[in-house]
Amino acid sequence: MTSPELAPPSDQTERRRETADEEIVVPLRHYGRTTLAVFAVLLLLGIGYGLSTNPYIAWDVVGQYFVNGSILRGLGVTLQMTVLAMAIGLVLATVLAIMRLSESRVLNAIASAYVFFFRGIPMIVLLIFVGNLGLFVKEIVIGIPFTDIVFYQVSMQKVLTPFIASVIGLVLVASAYMSEIVRGGLLAVNRGQYQASKALGLNGGQTLRFVVLPQALRVIIPPLGNELVNTLKATALVSVIAGGDLLTIAQSISGVNYKVIEMLIVASIWYLLVIALWSIAQYFIERKTAER
């Protein structure tokens, strides 16, 4: 017969011991983290208070022009430029990415040169160059080369408006950056997917459309969303060629009322609001893509 001292502990006794051990554990206190958080909050409050009470900033002017008709029209132009640049640039970027992955050395070299060139030139330089294209290209002529047969002819000044020039500059740069994003997404897909598609009888185009691209979207969408934010902010650079965007309108208004800082604050708030809305939309898009 087993004595009480040698009897194995019951499950209830073991649970009591585990509970007692958990109660003994003391969580580690992160004093440095708490101090840094308090300092950051106080710093933000101080900056906010300093800006709100600054006698040299007319906040009533900011409120007056925040929903001004001209400002809203400039915002609309900025959004149009962003959407067009991203849509056209993404199509061009996909073509460039496929060319970079092609076995043809000629296609690979052309795509690589395009990406190198338009990633290397500062966007503001490219915008000024495209905006002044009419200085040395006077006409656009479509016809048969080395003959007098002309199907269409138009003056460059009529076609290349500041808006068109701005979109062209944004597309050239955005497509170069997005092509690397798309290429990275395509390379992230396992090569076995190509072999499986070939075994099912799918050709190259069908494999890319139905198998590779849907899987690559999970890798492509996050950096693509970041590129949209960069393109939105880059639209401010078209003010150098009077592209009619938000910053161009804000600067033109400040030239009349001499409220430079106030108009820059109005433009900055609108940029931040649009980016905040896009960030929320991007979160749901990424979550929806991850579920597939």
From TrEMBL:
One of its GO terms (cellular component) is ATP-binding cassette (ABC) transporter complex. Pfam families: BPD_transp_1. It is a multi-pass membrane protein. It comes from the Bacteria. The keyword Manganese does not apply. GO terms for molecular function: transmembrane transporter activity. Keywords: Amino-acid transport, Cell membrane, Membrane, Transmembrane, Transmembrane helix, Transport. The chain crosses the membrane at residues 36-57, 77-99, 106-129, 159-178, 264-285. It is found in: Cell membrane. Residues 75-282 form the ABC transmembrane type-1 domain. One of its GO terms (biological process) is amino acid transport. The keyword Transmembrane applies. Belongs to the binding-protein-dependent transport system permease family. NCBIfam families: HEQRo_perm_3TM. This is ABC transmembrane type-1 domain-containing protein.
